[in-house]
Amino acid sequence: MSYSDKFKTQILAYKEILAKFNAVHDLTKHENLDWAIEDSFSGAKFIEGLPKVAIDIGSGAGFPGLFLSFVLDECQWHLFEPNFKRSSFLTYVKLNLGLKNVTIHSEKLENSTKFRADLITSRAVMKTKKILEISDGFYDENTQFLLYKGSSVESELENLKAKIYSSGNRNFVILKGVKNG
């Protein structure tokens, strides 16, 4: 996969900002940052169509939502991160990279005002049913979910129509047609 100069510049700037913040605030423990970044944006190839509005639940230091916003830059991204130091970091990155397509929410998704998203992503260590529960009111049967899961994801998908794409130890789970409630 080839990357634009803009994309490469964004990644480099992100790494520089993270190095400064991480030294003081311990935002992430990723030892292989390049792998974490590539893992984040590699999920984009499984998204059907071009979403207009997307939500990333538990964005942490930006994985995967921030990097997906680089790739899907026509989409309006809402990154939800309740940890204040992490959401402050994400705000700093957004401002320094001039990301007009990103909104940072320093709160839990379930505490926010409801709006419909075309895409909901999460790399959070949370069971799939819990993700659907806290996303209630933000999706309809046309919303896609892109979930970044580990190796034992099948047990979480009981009674859910899902596609699973595997890459090493990562499983990308696509859910569509899920009904609220």
From TrEMBL:
Specifically methylates the N7 position of a guanine in 16S rRNA. It comes from Campylobacter corcagiensis. This is Ribosomal RNA small subunit methyltransferase G. SUPFAM superfamilies: S-adenosyl-L-methionine-dependent methyltransferases. Belongs to the methyltransferase superfamily. RNA methyltransferase RsmG family. One of its GO terms (cellular component) is cytosol. It is found in: Cytoplasm. InterPro entries: rRNA_ssu_MeTfrase_G (IPR003682), SAM-dependent_MTases_sf (IPR029063). It comes from the Bacteria. Signal peptide: none annotated. S-adenosyl-L-methionine binds at residues 58, 63, 109-110, 123. HAMAP family: 16SrRNA_methyltr_G (MF_00074). One of its GO terms (molecular function) is rRNA (guanine-N7-)-methyltransferase activity. Its EC number is 2.1.1.-. Keywords: Cytoplasm, Methyltransferase, rRNA processing, S-adenosyl-L-methionine, Transferase.
